[in-house]
Amino acid sequence: MRTLIKTKLSLPLLHRGKVRDIFDIDDANMLIVTTDRLSAYDVVFDQPIPEKGMILTSIANYWFQKTEHIVQNHLTDINLEEVLSNDEAEMLAGRAIVVKKLRPLAIEAVVRGYLIGSGWKEYLSSSMVCGIPLPPNMKLAQQLLKPLYTPSSKAGVGEHDANISFKETEAIVGSALATQIKEMSLKIYQFAAEHALSCGIIVADTKFEFGLDEDNQLTLMDEVLTPDSSRFWSAANYQPGKNPKSYDKQIIRDYLETLDWNKKPPAPRLPDNIMAKAAEKYHQVYSILCN
Ligand SMILES: Nc1ncnc2c1ncn2[C@@H]1O[C@H](COP(=O)(O)OP(=O)(O)OP(=O)(O)O)[C@@H](O)[C@H]1O
Ligand SMILES: [Mg+2]
Prior knowledge:
Blueprint: E1 13-16, E2 20-24, E3 29-34, E4 39-40, E5 43-44, H1 52-66, H2 86-92, E6 96-100, E7 103-104, E8 107-114, H3 117-126, E9 128-129, E10 132-133, E11 143-149, E12 152-153, H4 166-173, H5 175-197, E13 201-212, E14 218-221, E15 230-234, H6 250-257, H7 272-290
Antiparallel strand pairs: 1-2, 2-3, 3-6, 4-5, 7-13, 8-11, 8-12, 8-13, 9-10, 13-14, 13-15
Helix pairs in contact: 1-7, 4-5, 6-7
Magnesium ion (MG) is lined by residues 17, 19, 222.
């Protein structure tokens, strides 16, 4: 099995994110390498999930193509061989892509279709999700009447993303763009949720990132509808009120909740069986969704 934790290439490094290493190509393009690093609660763990980077890349590419009719995206048709040495291209096959260098918009476009995670916690204490009032007596994991757009700010290194109102997104990117991002995000979610459901998967929630291209056109970037950016549940086992069987890193989060850990680095060591189960989830969702 090929595992990649950190990339070193002949190209200049632009940025090392929690999961992705980004290299400069030229004014128009850059190389995104998705490593096998695991992050949870915005903390990067020492233990990788073998092949996770390839799975995330394949799933994101699948969705980029499937949603092309809704929104343009950052993919290019430039091959790795055109920008890397043969050895590098071979080493990174399946996990690196050449993308358009965009001007990132500092908004995380979150769409929630179901009541779970931080949304559920907020509902229990205030009957709202991100300030949006919900009906009483909703259950854990219950489907929302309609999907909600609940944007958050893009946090700096070491910080957590914070929920923001639609008004605040207007202040960040301007009113027209804020509306376009909201409408586009709901459209992509709706389309993807329907498609995933036909494969037996519920997309409970997800996060999109957008940038502007050289013509100031809104462009979908980063990763899209992967198990790192979304909650995927098994439709067959789904029951409101019960913790859903999930195909993402929920198993890791659930384990971390049992620890007395403040969710700040250093990350605790994860047991082998939890790592193995998480790896299995990533493989499963790929084969269910993309085949
Ligand atoms: N086409 C693109 N143009 C410009 N930036 C992009 C593009 N696609 C993705 N990005 C940015 O590259 C980074 C991807 O790295 P990664 O997913 O590891 O980051 P992260 O941990 O989520 O966030 P951060 O980079 O803040 O640590 C993100 O900051 C993302 O916004
Ligand atoms: Mg990211």
